Amino acid sequence: MQILRRIAHWQVPVIITLLSIVIAVFGDVGREILRFEQSAIASGEYWRLLSGHFAHLGNHHMWLNLAGLLLVWLLVGRNYTTRQWYVVAAISIVIMDAGFWFLDADMRWYVGLSGLLNGLLIGGALRAIRTVPIESSVICGLVVGKILYEQFYGPLPGSESASGGAVVVNAHLYGAAGGALAAYIIWHRVRRPASI
Question: Residue 100: how many CB atoms within 10 A of its CB?
Answer without folding.
Answer: 23
